[in-house]
Structure prediction request, 332 residues.
Amino acid sequence: MGIYNIEHGYRKNKRWSHIIYAALLLAVGIYLVGNIYGNSQQQAQTAAAQLMSQPSSVPPAGGQPAKITAPLPWPDYGQAAYGAVDEGVLAQSTEKTEPVPIASLAKLITALAVLKQKPLAPGEQGPAITLSEEDVTLYREYVAKSGTVVPVQAGGQITQYQALQATLLRSANNMSDTLVRWAFGSMEEYNTYANEMLDELGLTDTIVADASGYSPLTKSTASDMVNIGLLYMQNPLLREIALQPEATIPFAGVVTNYNALINQDGVTGLKVGYTDEARNTFLVADIRGVNQDEISVAAVLGAHSMPTAMKDAKRLLKTGNAGHKLLTKKQP
Prediction:
């Protein structure tokens, strides 16, 4: 299985990595205008007292389409969906959808499960994770498969927070595996925990078979991914990470947020993904309101290219917001 582009394009040659990033930035640049959208850590910390690990449930999928007053621009491929906080999925591209591979969008599930098991508030680094030879082996295995990685060193340490940054911003497959083995003891225990968590949330069309999304057996639907994105953005620590343009990771140095190419014009990229089976997947959010508690999310699965996925997801999000009666009424 070949892996490619900004989601799985990492190589040990950093110069080649920078060339890839620059080329992709140019490719999507025509779609991106405006100023970088930010969120203060103080606001996230204020919300942390009420939103610690994650909400206990999500609204039923399907939502109330009557609240969308404008036709939505559905892509002519794959699956797509749009939803808002407290309401869940308001519209999806097709009535009946089957779970499909989601690539690294699975890492959002990984982060939610890890923080449910090992809660962490904004401003906290969490425990130090001591890396082992097993973690070095994981790194080498993903390099051999051309998967996205961050370098590790046996005997070295990385904090829980840094491991989440590496998993979510760099989309490091090896670090997502390291993180769940630390939090749950084994991949098998993680898979069981994550699937039970999803069942409790009512997200029954999502199946977790690994922590990274590299496996084509990890599947979901655009509708479930919208609900997962809404849960993700209601967690103050994960929202803080989503808004970071870069992070400093032990043994890797400064890494770029692969999802942030679209972090402009009031839009926040949550996760890019690519595998041969999933093709290009993208999840994007908009945050509004004085307390930054008015959140909408759009998901696109199965795009032919990442620039297409980003363009279509942003357009879907913006159109959905403009036609959403409740969101529109709240605007000044």
